[in-house]
């Protein structure tokens, strides 16, 4: 059975440096939102040594003022993301962050 996949990319001029990628598949009832935010500062970072549980609070992301989970797909990914966010807090640099369904899935320093 083949499934139809719809892909829509919208560059919204209303928000500075805001890109939205909407992925919708016919066999899913929910939608996955992937957004990149550019030039954002990291306020706080939290992690636990016994698990892959890490969180961060970012400045300047509309509607997301609470702790955001860091959930890359691998243990190394969690380590890499938390390392970049911690370095950004320590140095005062801004970061570009990818947020998928209210979780941080990617980051690189600006």
Question: Briefly, what is this?
Answer:
The protein has 110 residues and is α+β, with helices and mostly antiparallel strands. It is built from one helix and eight strands. The chain has a single domain (5-109), classed as OB fold (Dihydrolipoamide Acetyltransferase, E2P), CATH 2.40.50.
Topology:
Elements: E1 5-11, E2 18-25, E3 32-40, E4 42-47, E5 54-58, E6 68-70, H1 75-91, E7 95-100, E8 103-109
Parallel strand pairs: 6-8
Antiparallel strand pairs: 1-2, 2-3, 3-7, 4-5, 5-6, 7-8
Question: Which characteristics define this entry?
Answer:
110 residues; alpha+beta; OB fold (Dihydrolipoamide Acetyltransferase, E2P); eight-stranded mixed β-sheet; 15% helix; disordered N terminus
Write up this protein.
There is one protein chain. This protein has 110 residues and is of the alpha+beta class. Residues 1-29 have low confidence and may be disordered. The radius of gyration is 15 Å and the shape is globular. The protein has one domain (5-109): OB fold (Dihydrolipoamide Acetyltransferase, E2P) (Beta Barrel), CATH 2.40.50. It is built from one helix and eight strands.
Report how far apart the termini are: 44 Å
Q: Which residues form runs of ≥5 with pLDDT under 50?
A: 1-29
The CATH topology is given as: OB fold (Dihydrolipoamide Acetyltransferase, E2P)
Rg value: 15 Å
DSSP strand (E) fraction?
Answer: over 45%
- Strand tally is 8
């Amino acid at each position: 059975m083949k499934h139809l996949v719809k892909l829509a990319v919208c560059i919204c001029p209303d928000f500075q440096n805001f890109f939205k990628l909407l992925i919708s598949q016919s066999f899913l009832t929910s939608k996955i939102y992937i957004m990149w935010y550019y030039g954002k500062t990291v306020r706080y970072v939290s992690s636990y040594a016994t698990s892959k549980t890490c969180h961060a609070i970012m400045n300047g992301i509309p509607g997301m003022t609470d702790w955001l989970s860091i959930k890359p797909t691998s243990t190394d990914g969690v380590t890499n993301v938390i390392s970049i966010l911690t370095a950004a807090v320590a140095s005062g640099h801004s970061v570009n962050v990818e947020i998928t369904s209210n979780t941080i899935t990617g980051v690189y320093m600006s």
